[in-house]
Amino acid sequence: MIDFLINRYEAKLAFSYINEFTEIEDIELDNEDIYSITEIINDSLFPDGDKVTLNKYEQEINDVLYNYAKTEKEEKEIKRKLRNHIKKHRLTDDDLIWINKKDIRLCNWIWYLLYSKSYKEMIRRGNNINDITLYNNDNTHEERYISIINGFKKSNYKKEDKILFINDLKSIWSGKIITYRKVTDLIDEKNIEQAIWAYNYIVKTFKPRFDREYFKINNENDYYNIVICYFDGIINAYEKNDKFTSLKNAWSQKKYRDDNNGKKSYSFNMSIDIAKKLDILAANSNRSKNYIVEGLINTEYLKLKK
Description:
The chain is built from 15 helices and no strands. By secondary structure, the chain is mostly helical.
C-alpha cells in the first residue's frame, strides 16, 4: 500500500516515476475526465494539498501497480523503489537542523515571516517559494515549531528550492536580525513589568491587532519574546529604528514619571556659590543633589519638633 505522500509535488514525482520507469505511458483517474493524472496534478498544484486529495492519488497508484505487476513480489519491488525515489526528494532532519527548537527567538521570527507572508518582501531574487502554509492555530512555542517543520516538509516545492530558501533565511538572520541589539539592550528579559509595558505600547501605538492576529500570551515570558519578534519582523531598517526610538523615548518618559511620583519641583533664589557647594557635597557623598537638600531640610525640621 502506498500511503506516505505528504504533498502534491510528491504525487507528481510518483506518477512521473511510474510513467518513466515502467511500461505504463499514462495514467487516468477513474472519472469522466480524459486528462492524465499527471496533468491533473500539474493543474492542481496549489500549496499543501489536503489529505483527501493525496489519498485519491495514493489509491490510484496502488490500483495501477496492482494491475501492472505480474506478481506480488514485482509490485512490492516497484513500490520500494518508488518510496526511495520520493524520499530522495524530501527534506531530511539534517536539512532542517538550523531551525533550532530551543531558540525561541529564531522560531518566532521564522513563524512570523511564514504566517504573515512578509518573507516575500525580504527574499525577492531567486526565490521560487510563493507560499508555505502553517496548518495549526499555533498558540504555543511547541505548536509554532511543529508547524514550521511541517510547513517546510509539506509545501509543494522542490527540495533544492526549500534548501535555498532556508539558506536565504540563515543569511538574513545572521546578517540583519541577530545583529540588531538595540531592543534586547533596552528591554530586560528578566524585567517582566518592562516587557509587559513594551508589549502593550506596541499593541496600542504600532500594531493594534498584533495580539489577536499573530501571537497569544500564554505566560509571562511571552511578553518579552513577542516584543523582540515584533521588531525582528520589521523589514525596513528606517521603520525599525524610528519605532525603536519611539519605544525608547516612551520608556524614558515612563521611568522619569515613576521616579518622580509623589515629588514636586521647587524654585528658590540662592547665593551664587551654592550650586558649586552642592556639586561638591553630591560628589563626595555619592548622592543626588535632591537627596542632599531633602536631607538637610528634614534634619532641621526634626530639630524643631524636639
